[in-house]
Amino acid sequence: MHFTQLLQDRFHEALKPLTDAPESFASMIRPTTDPKHGDYQANLAMPLSKKLGKPPRDVAAAVVEAVKLDDVCETPEIAGPGFINLKVKDSFLAEQIRGLLGDARCGVGKTDSTQPIVIDFSSPNVAKPMHVGHIRSTVIGDSLARTLKFLGYHTITDNHLGDWGTQFGIIIYGYKHFGDPEVVAKDPVPELSKLYRRVNGLIEYRKAVAWVPDIEQAIETARADAADLESQTPDPADAKAAKKLKKSIASANRRVESLQSELESLRSKIAGVEADPTSAADAAAHPDIDKAVLQETAKLHQGDAENLELWKKFLPFCKDEINRVYDRLDVQFDHTLGESFYHSMLGGVVEQLESKGLASTSDGAVCVFLDGFDAPMIVRKQDGAFLYATTDLATLRYRLDEFNPAEILYVVDSRQSEHFDKIFAVAGEFGLAEVKLVHVNFGTVLGEDGKPMKTRSGSLIGLESLLDDAVDRARTVVCDPQRLENFDPPMEVAEQEMVAETVGIGAIKFADLGHHRTSDYRFNLDKMVALEGNTSTYVQYSYARTQAILQRAEKAESDVIAMIDTHGLSFSHVAERTLALSLLRFEEALLAVHKDYAPNALVDYLLDTARVYSRFNDSCHVLKAESEAIQATRLALVALTGRVLQLGLRLLGVGVVPRM
RNA sequence: GCGCCCAUAGCUCAGCUGGAUAGAGCAACGGACUUCUAAUCCGUAGGUCGAAGGUUCGAAUCCUUCUGGGCGUGCCA
């Protein structure tokens, strides 16, 4: 059901005789912001009046006269300068709600489109622990995939794993120097993680040690700059220059502060290693560990038998590690074609670029120079190694050959915008642009302080511990003994755990998806899991209430349909009508998600519908309804609300529980 | 230097291709429970939509300039 579309079609017909651009005016129909103006408003009379040279209210009257709406709407009203206010007829609403009963799709249509949409998302580096930065791509991509698939599109999800990079050099080095083959064979996943952390810690230690003098020097310079600026006396006659000087001083001081905080974090990292006897001994014994790791990586890429064998042996375990997180998040992929899959195709990509005259050698690197970009896209380094731009081009070509998609969505951080601008530009010149390429970019997850989220020591926060925290908090809330007393039969521990997991994981996903993807947002676990507010808990709770009512009434949806067939469906309270209208707007919410690739449209819709339901719940008693006819309508609304909320949450990747 | 993005209530955030009095949640204050789960609902208060111009019937939304902030910027991904 798509009211806006229906109304637009009707107006389109009526506008044909009045203008040669009926669709542009018909598109000026939207839901009202204030219910006193009805349900929908058409704002086309004002702009149209100028074209026709007639007063807008006269134009509105003419349009109202021409448009055929009597089966759908009450008589339109003309208000203010020429707004046409539309109110959907109760009989039409009732008819549509009747149509939703028994419809598993909740009134949402299916597209005819058959050409696939490839969705590239998550794409972590295996062997490295997943961190908070991976939430967004994973959760947004999964939600888009679920939503598009439900809308009828042939979706193909692909997790473009980083499975061929330095992190394997790290593990291989760790295995060769610190690994115990027996222990690794016995318990590979945690052992490999341990090896990764051990070696990576040493590399970071070395980097930190190397950086400290640079940073100290930089602080000196920045301090001197600041002091120099402060010593200048502003010209009192030139207010603008004085202001600019003040600004420069503030900026210089900020720079000093930021460098100092970086220095502090480096020092704490160094102190951490040196305080631990094992780490300190490691650090002393492996002074060139960073270079050695790069050598192990290079050997792997060159096909060194030993390293290749280790890579083949370890990769499945590294995948197990990330799959554990995906299982917990309930995220699946159709394909997991990592960087290693494209390794053999990279040379060919570079050759083709060169033979087509797109690439040229500059400073020993193979570059593609593009109009409108200062820096070239480098596809092969001086040392012969390929870069991610090369892999992305190879991946694009493979996807076109293999899947013949209409669209490819890249759910990747906004900071890579320029990279994708270049990739898309080259794709055009490379003959790979017979497809809509979209960088579905997203902002950064920030901590409480408004800076990118990190632990005190400066490292990124692990994703799994974050999920654990969320579930722990959800548990204390969900398993509050006072609340548990309300349940009959009592809630066993297993059910409590299930509820805590569903609420905790859902809270993180829902909060992430609730923000527009392009904006940065502050991560606040307390707010996400809170009982009050714009949270998944609120929607999940609303769902649980619908199920409680249906259970008490001992009615399945089929029983409700039978009741409606006997009594009909009609509204006796404004809250019923408002809820009905909201339920029928589900399709519009899903199409809005598709349009901007922005799941927050669905989050907003679900919160609004849950809120409307809460009001309905408050003012319209179901079991004590005044008559069986009224009860039939209310039961229908309750059953449909339950299904819409459940389905909507499912498309966000969020689960529900029957009671909480 | 150049490029991209952002600035909306005390706080966290919405605001669709320009529409009527700019919304929600949190926090604050005042109400409603012998509950179909009060994890709820109702009400009050809170805004010069960073600033200034412009486009027009009409601007948070489009354009220009300015201010403040973030990110990116030739061999990491």
TrEMBL record:
Q: Which source organism? A: Rubripirellula obstinata
Signal peptide (UniProt feature, chain positions): none
NCBIfam families documented for this protein: argS
Which cellular component terms (GO) are annotated to the entry?
cytoplasm
Please give the chief subcellular localization of this protein: cytoplasm
What Pfam family is a match, any one? tRNA-synt_1d
Q: Which gene encodes it?
A: argS
What family does this chain come from, according to its entry?
Answer: Belongs to the class-I aminoacyl-tRNA synthetase family.
Recorded coiled-coil stretches:
212-276
Recall the GO molecular function terms of this protein's record: arginine-tRNA ligase activity; ATP binding
Q: Which reaction does it catalyse?
A: tRNA(Arg) + L-arginine + ATP = L-arginyl-tRNA(Arg) + AMP + diphosphate
Q: Which UniProt keywords apply?
A: Aminoacyl-tRNA synthetase, ATP-binding, Coiled coil, Cytoplasm, Ligase, Nucleotide-binding, Protein biosynthesis
- EC number(s) on file: 6.1.1.19
- By its UniProt entry, which SUPFAM superfamilies does this protein fall under? Anticodon-binding domain of a subclass of class I aminoacyl-tRNA synthetases, Arginyl-tRNA synthetase (ArgRS), N-terminal 'additional' domain, Nucleotidylyl transferase
Motif 'HIGH' region is found at: 124-134
Name of protein: Arginine--tRNA ligase
